[in-house]
Design goal:
Elements: E1 10-14, H1 20-25, E2 33-38, H2 42-48, E3 54-57, H3 63-69, E4 73-79, H4 88-98, E5 99-108, H5 121-128, E6 131-133, E7 141-146
Parallel strand pairs: 1-2, 1-4, 2-3, 4-5
Antiparallel strand pairs: 5-7, 6-7
Length: 152
């Protein structure tokens, strides 16, 4: 991620739980403000111990979350998040909604080709939503850049 977005201003980690990822990533991105979103109150404890700057309890697809976070982040990470939600497509659209134009979406899934019922899986869905997919087809981590004008 550092090669593609060396100094993101704001980063949202979706499904952050205790904010282990933002806590570890801070050493690589010391000037980045990491926020966390989780359906459990663990995210509030993570905020209390300063692992993240802001904590949001809920789901990315919640309308009040989307309204509050619209176009706010340079990077949004979804680590094994798409496998845990009822509608992965809606989750991807919601992630793009909170990204700034030109922002980066970092998705980690067991098999991005099989998660969605599309020939190209997650990559195909992101391309259909106006993103440029920056990682190869065999990588389980998908990095995509949101276009200046996006369907999200």
């Amino acid at each position: 991620m550092r090669r593609r977005c060396p100094e993101p201003e704001g980063w949202l980690d979706v499904g952050t739980g205790d904010a282990d990822f933002p806590h570890a990533a801070r050493s690589c991105f010391p000037y980045t403000s990491f926020d966390g979103l989780d359906p459990t109150h663990r995210v509030l404890r993570a905020r209390a111990v300063e692992r993240i700057e802001e904590a949001f309890v809920g789901r990315l697809t919640d309308p009040h979350i989307q309204a509050r976070l619209r176009c706010r982040y340079d990077v949004v990470s979804l680590f094994q998040q798409l496998e845990r939600v009822p509608d992965p497509r809606a989750e991807l659209r919601a992630a793009l909604h909170v990204l700034r134009p030109g922002g980066h979406l970092l998705v980690d899934v067991a098999d991005p080709r099989r998660l969605l019922a599309l020939p190209a899986g997650v990559r195909g869905e992101l391309a259909a939503l106006g993103c440029t997919v920056l990682t190869g087809p065999r990588s389980r981590r998908v990095i995509a850049r949101k276009g200046a004008v996006s369907a999200a």
